[in-house]
Amino acid sequence: xxxxxxxxxxxxxxxGFIFAAAGSAIGLxxxxxxxYTTGEYGGAAFVLVYIGFVVLxxxxxxxxxxxxxxxxxxxxxxxFAALDPGEKKRWSLVGxxxxxxxxxxLSFYAVIAGWTVSFLIRALSGTFAGGMTPEQSGxxxxxxxxxxxxxxxxxxxxxxLTALVVRGGVSGGIERAxxxxxxxxxxxxVILAGRAVTLPGADAGLRFLFAPDFxxxxxxxxxxxxxxxxxxxSLGMGAMITYGSYLQKKERLPVAGISVxxxxxxxxxxxxxxxxxxxxxxxxxxxxxxxxVFVVMPAIFDKLPAGQAFGVAFYAxxxxxxxxSTMSLLEVVVAYFVGQRGWSREKAVWVVSxxxxxxAVPSALSQGAVDGLGADVLGESFLDIMNIxxxxxxxxxxxxxxxxxxxxxxxxNKAVEEMGGMPGGALWGIxxxxxxxxxxxxxxxxxxxxxxxx
Length: 454
Ligand code: TRP
Hints:
Layout: H1 3-6, H2 14-25, H3 28-40, H4 44-72, H5 76-83, H6 92-124, H7 134-146, H8 148-166, H9 171-197, H10 202-210, H11 219-232, H12 239-244, H13 253-281, H14 292-301, H15 307-341, H16 345-365, H17 382-418, H18 425-449
The chain binds tryptophan (TRP).
């Protein structure tokens, strides 16, 4: 949400805010990351744990971030400094960690977003016409991600788009467009899910998604479910602090926050309802990992009337959903340089996105283009390491510290007052003081000690 900050303004309406915050939350995390982590960690049991974390940790941290942001009216570093009652303002380091994390996430997120553009171009040129077997789409995917020119180039294209939007020029336009396009995307996902669940053999996919087998749940799965809950809601690094700072005083935060959490979770489940039935129906249960969505989707388009047009619309809308997420990531880093370092918006946008591009290159090249960056770094590719490090570990740490700050340092009473005195205020207080910090700490320590997160 760059326009309000550029003009020192605020969101005009609650719906404007909900759309911007939902735009940040809904993205590749729902459509790309959720299905493949669910696949990796055994299905329904993982999904249940994920939903549990959304409710017990996600919603409380989301409300904490929004109230910290609105109470201070500042970027994450400035926000902690403004609300920290201490002399030394040490808590602003949490904001600093958030800014770094935003940069780290953007660097690999832009690579995946670039893949969606690659697939959009293929869809436009009719590559999927006549249907594709999962083997064929798998081959196409492998070719695209192993092509250095294409992956690096598309990451650059995506970062450039993000920079142009955050620079302020078209941000009003993208928000207005997103308000129309997001409901369209939602409707499309419903149609796709409707088709997927009626494919022959789809029931095996539904069982995978909804019939929990807790024996498949590992500590690494629990850590990833926590990371996924935070990642999907854009929590743990100050994106929602930054958006909260643009929110008018009269808005009631709990309503806005809870609506965003519900939308976001619904969309992830919808994505699962498309991917797993389609996957099992195609008999391609071997397809897994970061390529899952890209391999499975082409197989389903030709099972729909006007499938080709559907394919084009799907990738276009996914790219827009990714763009409203990358906007929020870049916005946090830019808001820091503008608010704390006194840079001009223009300078901050170009320097940050340029640096981010340099960080994106090794991730882009790690998927087959350059050997040394592949699965030989700690047994994972460079991109996977970035994803786990920033997307799980750093977000977990950030969310823990944000909860502790809201619950113990700034204080539950002040936060609840900022939220407009909500009925469940006492429950929220227990969540940020005890449930979130202890829960996150236990999960993180356990998985770090066992190096299970890799
Ligand atoms: N939530 C977004 C998604 O699901 C990604 C994202 C945007 C994000 N901003 C964030 C993740 C801030 C963590 C923190 O695609």
